[in-house]
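sanity check this fold:
=====
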Amino acid sequence: MDKPYFVHESSYIDEPVSIGAGTKIWHFCHVQKGAVIGENCSLGQNVNISNNVKIGNSCRIQNNVAVYEGVELEDYVFCGPSCVFTNDLTPRAKYPKGPQGFVKTLIKRGASIGGNATIVCGNTIGEWALIASGAVVTKDVPAHALMAGVPAKQIGWVCECGQPLKNGFTCAKCGRSYELNNGQLLEV
């Protein structure tokens, strides 16, 4: 029976998992039991989706990314090559905590994480936020925030389309307009 998704023959898919229609899982990936992957996602080469991870629809996870248990990606999330997620703030090989000790991380709708960025567990990345390549996120990130550096600091705002907002809060690329209200960028 044909499946409504594609899995390259070099990848391993444990059971049970749920994989949405139109999703493509490329070379050398591993999807572990209990994982839920939405529709129209793309998992690049050497991606690991750990036990019980939830991935929304239309997510793009580039090569060499491990999405560990306790991490959730909402719809339209982009994970750049070799970005890093964690799930334990005080790991010890001698004293493993198991799933009950994992610290949750949420990447909200449309957020993008650049290549080699690190997302320390226990934080939420807001909708349509953009994390620069190589940044280390150690605290919650507001929606539409542009974050860079080690540790990551907000250096600006970005439009839903991904364009940094300059000279006010109207996007030069797509024309969307925003306003700042109590530290939050809201579309008007």
Remarks:
- The chain has a mean pLDDT of 97.
- The radius of gyration is 17 Å.
